[in-house]
Structure formats: C-alpha cells, structure tokens
Amino acid sequence: MHFFFMIIFLLFLLKVKINFVLNLLYPLVIFLYLKTHEDKRHRVYQTFPLGLGDGQFYSWTDGLRRKDWHDYESIQKEAMRSGKGEHGKPYPLTEEDHDDSAYKENGFNIFVSNNIALERSLPDIRHANCKHKMYLERLPNTSIIIPFHNEGWTSLLRTIHSIINRTPESLIAEIILVDDFSDRGSAKMASSVNDPVPIRWHKMLSRLCSSLD
C-alpha cells in the first residue's frame, strides 16, 4: 500500500514539474512564433460608427511593429543652414551689443534672441546608440503644455517652432500655452502663431508660481 501511494506522489511531482516547465516555455514559443511570422501578419480593417476611432480596426499584432521616425529630409535641410547662431554656435557680439540691460528682463540677452532665426538649427547631441533606435510605429499623441511668465517674445516662439519641427506631426495633439499672469504685452502671440498643429492660449487671472520668484 505504501508503495502505491509513493508511486502516486511521484507521478504528482512529475506532473507539477512538467506544468512548471510548460509555463516557462509557453511565452517563449509565442514570442518566437510572432517573430518568425512577423512579415506574414496582416491588418484587419473595419469601419467604425461615425466619430469613433480613425475608421479602422487593427489587430493586436500591429502594435509590435517598429519604424524609423527620423525625418531625414528635415535633417538634411538643417545641415545646410548657415548664419548667426546656427547649429548651436555662439552669436558674435560687438562692443555695442554688450548691454547689461538686455539681461535684466529675461535673464538672457534678448538682443541675441531677436537676431537668431526662429527655426534655428541645432546639433544632434544624442548618444550614437540612440540615433539608430527604432520605436513602435503606432504611438499615442500627446498635448504639450508650455507655462511661462514674462517670457521673451522670440525665445517663446523659438520654443514652439523647435517642438513642431522636431516632433512627428501625428504625435502632437495640441500645444497649450499657459501665460502665468504676465504683466508684459504678449497676448499678440495668440494670433501671430500660424502652425500646422492646434495651439491653445490660456492666460491665468492670478500668479500661480509667485512663491518660486
């Protein structure tokens, strides 16, 4: 009798071990299958009711594909730019341009900012390995919020242009400018900025970050 129970117990342990191994191997098998059949997978399209989604239904495997998001045409155009401040180079100041009062309002030389192109080219300072990374082809878009207070007109515009020029348009839902109760004239920006992405303007009725001043 004891021998019989021992056999049962050993069979039970064997089954547990087999299940344990199968649980470990199952995700690996699924992963290898998806990788080897990646090119054979197809999207499934379906029309949604009006106003829902983008009018297409995607299978769960679509989100696994990766793509190169670099805009090489834009990169080439930037490489050809020349002028003061281009490619992140210092702006050459003359003796007449060295005016300390230019720093008082903004904490930087607004004269230089006013004389640098709004779509200024910048060097790529990323690590070499980061320049070849592939990201998912279907990414959610996002709202970009820019809070400011008495910001220099040209530096704020340059920030907006830099975001738009260096971000895939499909990934920008909107740009929200939050004026934290500036007391210098900047309301004209709402009508001056004409860009391919929605830009919303919100002016606070009181200073929210005065404790940081």
Structure, explained:
The chain crosses the membrane at residues 6-34. GO terms for molecular function: polypeptide N-acetylgalactosaminyltransferase activity. Keywords: Disulfide bond, Membrane, Transmembrane, Transmembrane helix. This is Polypeptide N-acetylgalactosaminyltransferase like 6. One of its GO terms (biological process) is protein O-linked glycosylation. With 213 residues, the protein is an alpha/beta fold. It has helices at residues 2-36, 72-79, 101-104, 110-114, 153-165, 189-192; strands at residues 66-67, 135-136, 142-148, 172-179, 199-203. The chain has a 3-stranded parallel beta sheet with strand order 3-4-5, with helices on one face. It has a two-stranded antiparallel ribbon with strand order 1-2. The chain has 6 helices and 5 strands. The chain has one domain (41-212): Alpha-Beta Complex (Spore Coat Polysaccharide Biosynthesis Protein SpsA, Chain A), CATH 3.90.550.
